[in-house]
Amino acid sequence: MAFGQQRIEYKTIDQMRIMHRSGLILDDALNQTIAAVSPGVTTAELDALFASLLKKAGATSNFLGYYDYPASICTSVNEEVVHGIPGPRVLERGDVLSIDGGAIVEGWHSDSARTVIVGAPSDADPADRRLSDITEESMWRGIAAMASAKYVGDIGDAIDDYVSAQPGKSLGILEDYVGHGIGSAMHMAPDVLNYRSKHRGPKLKPGMCLALEPMLVRGGLATITLADDWTVVTADKARAAHWEHSVAVHAKGIWVLTAADGGAEQLAPLGVTPVPLG
Ligand code: MF3
Ligand code: CO
Known about the structure:
Layout: H1 13-35, H2 43-57, E1 73-77, E2 80-82, E3 96-105, E4 108-117, H3 126-146, H4 153-164, E5 172-173, E6 179-181, E7 188-192, E8 209-212, E9 215-217, E10 223-225, E11 232-234, E12 240-242, E13 245-250, E14 253-256, H5 264-267
Helix pairs in contact: 1-2, 3-4
């Protein structure tokens, strides 16, 4: 989807505060869902757990019913990149699982995804571990860039530069799916590309909230959508990873809405100190 044609929604601090409440509920629900991941668990069980956690916290799902999407999270396993539908699939040791979820509080949205490798650390293929780690760090590089970016396009530059600079076998950055603005809807303008482009995008300004979500692959960039009309897989069946956070830009700085510490720990080594919404 492309959101470039819509107007950007600039949020007030009070609106971003509600998004923050949504983001913290989401962060907690994702943490608990990820803690439940283990060999033998089905993706439908994870969805049911996540849905019950949102409900308990007083939030609703922005995924459920979105263009008739049937669940509250997306669970994408191995060659599945995004939008995998939870179901009877039983997770196995070494599976690369991305869990993508979202929440609505008082009409304000949050969206976040993480990748985990099922089982003990020793069950992970080192190449899969590297794939997820580089994807996560590329997201943090993109978030860090927001602290000083002039244009939204600077985010994609930072992600791309980091991924391209990695020694060893090169990883691909998907171009078929991009990040997005978020606020009173889950998917809003502007598009947030995860790669370097001559299109600089709009100026990054206070009041913008963006969901950054790099998707990296160990093989080629071509993707296919399965017959369920949702699940996106790599055409060559190479494994993919996906990390996502919703981030607010306000007058005094940036704050990661979907991380309990606003991103402080991960951003510190990058020389960025997130600033609370106040
Ligand atoms: N977080 C996902 C994204 O930004 C949204 C999934 S939409 C759903 O692509 F319908 F699959 F839930
Ligand atoms: Co998203």
